[in-house]
Design a protein that fits this description.
By secondary structure, the protein is of the alpha+beta class. It folds into 2 domains: 1-33; 42-162, no CATH class. Helix content is 33%, strand content 26%. The protein has 3 helices and 7 strands, in the order H-H-H-E-E-E-E-E-E-E. Strands 1-2-3-4-5-6-7 form a 7-stranded antiparallel sheet, covered by helices on one side. The chain crosses the membrane at residues 12-34. Keywords: Membrane, Transmembrane, Transmembrane helix.
Length: 165
């Protein structure tokens, strides 16, 4: 075996250490870059800080957007507004996405791969056969264990934490 091969083999453990340290540093960097999508994140706290009147106004605005969809298009309606097209009624929320459809509509406050922080609007559009269609706004977060908190109902005084789906 030549001398250069022996030296090459001795350097390999150092490469492994450098690779491991690089992976740890990369993971730490990604944790700083990607937003927090938990219900206790900055966006979650902002959603909880909205007054009953503000939440009722958001629900009315979402209903008005639904009402603007021509009746013949409603059955297949799944309208999306990206972050650069958010309707001005929702501008103060710093939303990433607004989706309007039958059953429930959402305002996505944060998105972390498959983990989202959404305001889900029920009672907008036509009732569906899926679940309770009573008017309400629910803060929903999580990926596998979904956490929900009803922030607003017309007859509710305070937010109500709920269990996962």
């Amino acid at each position: 075996m030549s001398t250069s091969r022996k030296e090459s083999r001795r350097k390999r453990p150092g490469c492994l250490v450098i690779s491991i340290l690089g992976g740890i540093a990369g993971f730490a960097f990604l944790m700083l870059v990607f937003p927090n999508c938990d219900a206790n994140s900055k966006q979650g706290r902002m959603a909880r800080s909205l007054s009953r009147d503000q939440l009722a106004g958001l629900h009315r605005a979402m209903t008005k957007l639904w009402d603007k969809i021509p009746k013949e298009e409603r059955e297949s309606a799944h309208i999306r507004f990206g972050s650069d097209q958010i309707p001005e009624e929702f501008g103060g929320l710093d939303a990433h996405l607004v989706r309007i459809r039958d059953g429930n509509s959402i305002i996505r406050l944060q998105g972390c791969m498959d983990h989202y922080l959404d305001l889900v609007f029920y009672g907008v559009g036509e009732p569906t056969s899926r679940g309770d269609h009573s008017p309400r706004i629910v803060l929903m977060s999580g990926e596998h264990e979904i956490q929900t908190e009803t922030l607003w109902r017309p007859d509710q005084e305070a937010p109500v934490p709920e269990s996962g789906k």
